[in-house]
Design goal:
The structure is a single chain. By secondary structure, the chain is α+β, with helices and mostly antiparallel strands. The chain is 46% helix and 16% strand. It has 7 helices and 8 strands. A 5-stranded mixed barrel has the order 1-2-3-6-5. The longest helix is centred in the N-terminal third of the chain and has 29 residues. The termini are far apart.
Length: 263
């Protein structure tokens, strides 16, 4: 039995070696065709990789610069494209952000005019801020944290206005300047940070509410947190010096009366 097993294993080894030898001879006799096949495979694979990178950078724009909102194709909104931008200024009346598109591979203006795109943060109720001091506080926070800083905007939709320029509805993520260093390690939603500070209220967009419930839930949690901590819109106003003096005088009189009654 042992001899038979050895003979069978020897026959298998010889068969495999014969097959490898035949393949080697076939390759040696067709070296030109083998080289051509390998070259074609490399070229096709390289073309596929280049096409994939092209589609990725078209969806997440790397070199197409937009100077106007009207220049952005609808496909960018459909694919939720992300635009790298720099925050240029903050509108004093509406607190909307004016940003400049800063493509990944096209840092210079190349002779073009300055790109200015108006952005409305998704889920932020700008109408909730009506008092002049609240509008000023929101404006000061935006200028101190995101002005002249790089950010990324996820395009969601285009908001058209009749008597004013159109604006982009999107989710802006940035590293806020006044945050601690561990929070600046990654970009955070500017809308969530504003709601957390109690500067604005959250409000869903009618056409985008179902798709972005996670962002709306996060904004609602930040608003509740600001309410509990009495921040921003829910901050308890400080009493004036005259009111403080009157209250202290009244408490002094009441304590004096109690001492008199005890006697």
């Amino acid at each position: 039995m042992g001899m038979e097993k050895c003979e069978k294993s020897g026959d298998a080894d010889s068969a495999s070696s014969d097959w490898l030898a035949q393949v080697g001879k076939l390759l040696d006799s067709n070296v030109r065709w083998v080289r051509g096949a390998l070259t074609g495979t490399v070229v096709i694979a390289g073309a596929g990789i280049c096409y994939y990178l092209y589609t990725v950078f078209r969806v997440f724009p790397g070199w197409t610069r937009f100077d106007r909102i009207e220049d952005i194709p609808q496909s960018y909104y459909d694919h939720k494209a992300k635009l790298p931008v720099n925050v240029l200024r903050v509108d004093k009346d509406s607190n909307e952000l004016v940003v400049g598109h800063n493509p990944l591979f096209r840092r210079k203006s190349d002779g073009l005019t300055t790109s200015e795109l108006t952005v409305s943060l998704y889920g932020v109720d700008y109408n909730s801020v009506t008092q002049p001091e609240d509008i000023k506080a929101c404006n000061v926070w935006l200028q101190s944290n995101v002005l002249e800083r790089p950010a990324v905007i996820t395009l969601l939709s285009l908001r058209k206005h009749e008597n004013s320029p159109h604006s982009i509805v999107g989710i802006m993520e940035a590293r806020c300047a006044q945050d601690p260093w561990w929070k600046r390690l990654r970009r955070q939603s500017v809308a969530q940070r504003m709601c957390e500070q109690g500067l604005v209220l959250s409000q869903p967009e009618p056409n985008l509410q179902i798709k972005y419930m996670a962002e709306l839930d996060a904004l609602a949690r930040m608003v509740e947190k600001a309410k509990r901590q009495k921040r921003g819109l829910w901050k308890v106003p400080a009493q004036s010096s005259s009111q403080t003096h009157a209250i202290s005088g009244l408490s002094h009189r009441i304590s004096k009366w109690f001492r008199f009654l005890r006697k």
